[in-house]
Amino acid sequence: MTDLDTAPGHEVPRILTTRWDLADGFTLDRYHDTGGYQALRAALTSMTPAQVAEQVKAASLLGRGGAGFPAGVKWGFCPPGVFPRYLVVNGDESEPGTYKDRILMERDPHQLIEGVLLACYAIGVGQAFLYVRGEMALAQERLAEALNDAYEAGYIGHKILGTDFSVDIVLHWGAGAYIVGEETALIESLEGNRGMPRLKPPYFPAAKGLYMQPTVVNNVETLANLPWIVSNGGAAFADLGVESSKGTRLFAVSGHVRNPGVFEVEFGTTTFRDLVHGDRYGDGIVDGNTLKAFIPGGASAPWFFEEHLDLPLEAGAVGAAGSMLGSGAIVVMDETTDAVKAAWRVVRFFARESCGKCTPCREGTSWLEKILRRMLDGHGRPADIDKLLDICDNISPAITWPPKQTTICPLGPSAVSPIASAVLRFKDEFVAYCGGGGEITVPVNGKAYLSTPSTVGAPS
Amino acid sequence: MTDTSAPPTVDVTVDGRTIEAAKGELVIDAAERNGVYIPRFCYHPRMKPVGMCRMCLVEIDTGRGPALQPSCMIECTDGMIVATDTPVAQKAQEGVLEFLLINHPLDCPVCDKGGECPLQDQTLAYGPGESRFVEEKRHFEKPIPVSDLVLLDRERCILCDRCTRFAKEVAGDPLIHFMDRGSQTEVNTFPDDPFASYFSGNTVQICPVGALTAAPYRFKARPWDLDQVESTCTSCSVGCRIVVQSSRNRVVRYEGVDNDAVNWGWLCDKGRFDFEAVNSDDRLGEPLVRDEGLSLKASTWSDALRRAVKSIRQGLDRSGPEGFAVIGGARLTNEDQYAWVKFTKGLLGSDNIDAQLGDGLPADAVLGLPRATIDDACRPGGAVLVLGPDTKEELGILYLRLRHAVLNDGVRLVELASVATGLTDELARVSLRYRPGYALPVVRALLAGDAGDAVGGVTPEAIRAAAAALGDGPLTVIVGRANLAESGRSIAAAAAAIHHTRADVRFLSALRRANVHGALELGLSPGLLPGRVTLDGGREWYAERWPDLPAAKGLDTAGILRAAADGKIDTLVLLGADPLADYPDRYLAEAGLTGARTVIALDQFLTESVKQADVVLPVAGFAEVDGTTTNLEGRVSALARKVTAPGTAQSDWMVAAELAYRLGHDLGLESPGQITAEIAATAPAFAGLSVEALTAPAGSDGIVVMLPTRRNGDSEADEAGDAGASAVGTAVAGDGPTDAGGAETAVSTVGEAAIADATTGTPPEVQATHLLPPATGVPLPVWTVIDPPSVDAYSLRLVVTRKLYDRGTLVANSPSLSEVAEPATLHLSPHDFDRLGVAAGDDVRVTSNRGNVSVPTVPDPGVPRGIAHLHANKAGGRANVLIDGNAPITDVRVERP
Amino acid sequence: MARFTSENTAVAEEIIARYPVAKSALIPLLHLAQEQDGHVTDEAMIHIAELIGVTPAEVLGTASFYEMFKREPVGDYVVNVCTNISCMLLGGEELLGHLERRLGIKAGSTTADGKFTLEDVECIAACTEAPCLQVNYRYFHRITHEQADELIEDLRAGRRAHEIPRHGTLSRVRQQLPETRAGVVPPDRNVEPAWLARNETATEAGS
Ligand SMILES: Cc1cc2nc3c(=O)[nH]c(=O)nc-3n(C[C@H](O)[C@H](O)[C@H](O)COP(=O)(O)O)c2cc1C
Ligand code: SF4
Ligand code: FES
């Protein structure tokens, strides 16, 4: 296997990636040598669960799975006095462009396990489930090995480290369905069902989750931060980053850059320009080409363009500009990219991955895919362009951001972003595919859906 | 015990109008109650909402501004603002409809649903004009059978999850399921594992498009040339409300009607599809008379009636009223039954009449015990003891109601059953596997809460667990005859024991033949007169109204058959009865039919028994007559005529009237309506009943016939008095004491009238007379139960139960159903095979002191050691040749032939 | 072929015992079945239904939702080429086309000799390593057409057997839940965990 290219010469703080370069970073021995399980020991011996939760709150650690909700706050939603509570670790990473949880699981499984244990201790969970994407055989092997060793060493199981803290962590794999990444679908899947999301309300996991019990669902990267936070304190974590986003974050920069890779970056202090052009990161566009567009936060995110490059990597600013950091996936497209083709490929993904529960998503996404495919095959019609947007409007009314939805979960509306982004900015390419002509009458409101460059994106 | 406090309400604004909604009520329901219909496909009021079709999206504002929400999932909260008609909501709804249509074949012209299709209707109401969809539609193989009765067209399916939810949630048979994903999602079964559910037909009724179709109905008619009336299903005694639909004077379909008291809109497949029997070419259309050559020949009514009257006269001359006997009548309407009782008891003075064929319970047990309604049995938090048949096999919709109560309303259910039933695995907290013959001792132990040691094969632990599960709160006992090879008296005795010991206990009869309860209420049983009065109790009252009365209590079916066998019966009338098939003791039935001097049969079909008759009179059946019927709760509801009977077939009551006339008397009966009125005026328990009340809009729930009132001295009746009160209450509310609903309905006024009359005890029409009607209510006798002989080492004890699909007249004459009825098999404990030296599937000979049958064996873990389990009236093996009607139980030998 | 072997039945029962509710074991058991037979047979689904107390239709309902479960036999090696956006930008489609020609089959089908099944798949989380593919879910990053050809040759010649087990086997390491496990937590046991209960007291200790 080709080795992963982590950026040379990090000065930026490393919280998550410290063992990535170690050939045996995934073993218990090496984890011990590098301070492993000290946070757990400290927590169990000198901190109450409430104190651990406090540290996480103080760190204001945002969820790394896409929704970006503060973990500490989310834990607090479990109704008091209702037990048992379960923890489900979301390792189903499948958002196009996203590549970080897999490395965390393959290269530093114990860091994740320790994070899971800390969360279980703080929340009061007696059984946790580690849901790994089915296609990730190596991650499954590394985690199985790590779990077996950790049980052996007494970090997991009955009376951990001789305290009254007992928890099991059950390793569970998926079987190929992107939608299962959505937390309620993840729970359905873990119950042995088709991965179809539940309606919120009434099925908020924190109240009615796994087996209708209070359940916390957290992303792999989110939990991997916990050992550092507990060892160094929530305050130290909060010192990194900026107001709306604390700590560091993993970004996968892929597509038309000279040095694609997964980078740990301090929130807010770095910009998209750094990630795309900085020599320690993306190192510029391939073949000296120019940037056409980039996806800032995974396939579901509205596209950004040249004028957004100077936005800081920080939830607030990116949200204000009409998109999201989502799952930390930055996909760079250069001038040679066919906008219609790119939009089609992302839409095809959502069409293939729709769970089929909601009519607008099940029928709408595949209809959009068929129309775009027909355009690419040379049978586009001028009316198609407006039709595309109107169908989008029926899936996500008013085509705005954050998206409204006629569906249960955001998957359906996710297919709207690439289309609105591409159709508005690169209308001429669509027109060309439709034999000229093609009027747009459907109103589009998303702030990042720009027909011409503007200063919307400039940092404020 | 009944909570009458109304649920808290909240104020919700719907399209600008403030309405009151029950807290927790769904927006879609609250809006509809207030005249705002929100379109929907997946939502069904009798199933949990899934919110997946997205058709019911409306804008809901709970303070954070309006947002599109599925109104089928959102519960009303105070101050909530709902807008169903904003541009946003409307565009969303139109969008959903367009999405649903893009892959829909639009083959409405050849679709069974065309004309009654929600998708079609809502497209007209909310849909886009022309199609913008120019791509290729999704394709699936056209209709595939998902069962012998139901076909599925996946191209028409809109994936609303109704059929699949019904299968899992309501029927408990998740054999159809969503398969694949996204736009490829389809509903299907597992390969070679069909949707074999007794309730599959309901999925066809609730499918919002034409995806699911019923084999017996497909292409039979188009909705617009359908013509329909509301009626009551008489396939069993649950009495589900239905609509009977016909086209060109042929019945083509039954559909369930949603009423709260009984069936909630559901039907079992037997009830839904046995309409085929009504249309059967084998229906009798002309009278038949046995000629000198001793074969049945087509004849005329006048000739046939002459023959009948001749034999009746001769019989009366020869041996008086005791020589006249009637078996059957449980399938007749209340009016037909009354006519025959009046004819037999009130005119000829014979008390030899029995609507039960020895396969039920003693009449005084059914009438003497305080009665429960289905709602009583299903009341949340209550307890149910099943001392009767497998409701899943015999009373399908009662089973669905119980299943819902146990799974959703915390009802605790315990069953006494000699073999596992359809309730055992999923619903019964404890299933007491007692040995046939020991019902009474086991029940005694259960009542004591403990048993020193095992009784009737039941361990003390099981007894304790069962007693604990039942608790000592309100109890409903479902009492009936599970095992035809175990005498009904022992069950009756066990029920009586419970009645005497438990404080708050009611009984729901599980006798299964359609109107058997009406028959008992109206005196088609020795020693009884119409209106639940005993022969002696009502003698004075009826002497004033009827020409004659029996001198003394007469014979039941067993007695009649024995007397006939001894040549003591001159005229035996079979009222839609087939003793050879249904009487548990086949040899006695044969001897009786041959021994009777003349047999007159009124029937719709030439059954095995009817073939033995000397005079055969063709009668009209279900959907061909007006009248009323009484279900197992004692609930009277209306039957309606929709088509004309074949040939010259007559109503049973007319035949009685005609015979009376030719004997020189006038029964004074003119029409079903007039008879209903006479029943109300004459039969004390029916005071206040009227056709108007039953056919009023609110009559759908029927009226529960009054139960014995306080004025009846003995303690049972006192008990029963309370029951009566509540049962009348039932009639008042039209839906169980808890229902505040139809308080001021037509039914209620009658119900109240009934109560009033009951307490003053004077039926309206007879105010004038000096005579008070007799107290209703039948005292419980004391049944002596002899302990069964203990079975010897080589024998097995026989258990004979019924299946939904047997060779009964209705199924046998409904091709779609007779096809799914399996042949007879002998079910044995897997542990008994070696001992008996037989292998699974072997043909074995089952021998009793009466006879023998040869059937293949099936290992069945639900059958305990030492039990031989057969099903009644099955092709390829008649269980009733084995049963000794006199004995409390029957033991058999099982050998290789 | 088909139902679980006796050892696998034992494994299945151990897996079921890990979950508070038996049906949660459904997907793991389907993986086990696929590991045993290379694909999920009807008989295996019937056996699974018996083991966890649901109907075969419910098992198939779940199985058919997930792409990894194959109901028909597939090649010994299932080659998944990612063509999603990041890989598409760097030649994923060309790589797929190259392999189609090389193997003489269209994506979604299996070679006549039953060795290879080729699939056009969605993002496999190796976006920065595009173009990439998986063989029986083992990754190959930044693959050139030449490297792809070598890989196929190696697989044909069985030279990669040690690193790539036949289709159906994912993790070659099974999680073992030892005696010291904490035990399943049934959803209906509403008791506060001990360590939460002692919250306050410990606070004093802690401070
Ligand atoms: C369509 C869809 C797909 C998702 N996929 C993932 C995923 O692969 N991994 C993940 O961690 N979260 C995913 N999420 C987000 C989860 O629903 C959930 O917010 C997250 O796991 C919570 O963990 P966090 O708070 O630690 O981020 C997805 C959400 C949606 C709507
Ligand atoms: S939006 Fe799509 S993926 Fe999400 S629940 Fe609805 S159908 Fe399923
Ligand atoms: S009726 Fe509400 S979503 Fe279908």
Question: How would you describe what is shown here?
Answer:
The complex is a heterotrimer of chains A (460), B (897) and C (207). Chain A is an alpha/beta fold. Chain A has 19 helices and 10 strands. Chain A has a 4-stranded parallel sheet, with helices on both faces. Chain A has a 4-stranded mixed sheet with strand order 8-7-10-9, with no helix packed on it. In chain A, β5 and β6 form a beta hairpin. In chain A, α5 packs across α7 and α14 runs antiparallel to α18 (416-425). The longest helix of chain A has 21 residues, at 359-379. By secondary structure, chain B is of the alpha/beta class. Chain B has 29 helices and 36 strands. In chain B, α9 crosses α23 and α19 crosses α21 (586-595). The radius of gyration of chain B is 28 Å and the shape is globular. Helix content of chain C is 40%, strand content 10%. Chain C has helices spanning 6-16, 26-37, 42-52, 56-63, 85-89, 92-103, 145-156, 194-197, 199-206, and strands at residues 77-82, 109-110, 116-121, 133-135, 138-140. The longest helix of chain C has 12 residues, at 26-37. Classes of the chains: A alpha/beta (460), B alpha/beta (897), C alpha+beta (207). Chains in contact: A-B, A-C, B-C. Flavin mononucleotide (FMN) binds at residues 63-67, 69, 71, 90, 92-95, 179, 181-183, 217-219, 222, 409-411 of chain A. The site of FE2/S2 (inorganic) cluster has 12 residues of chain B, from loops.
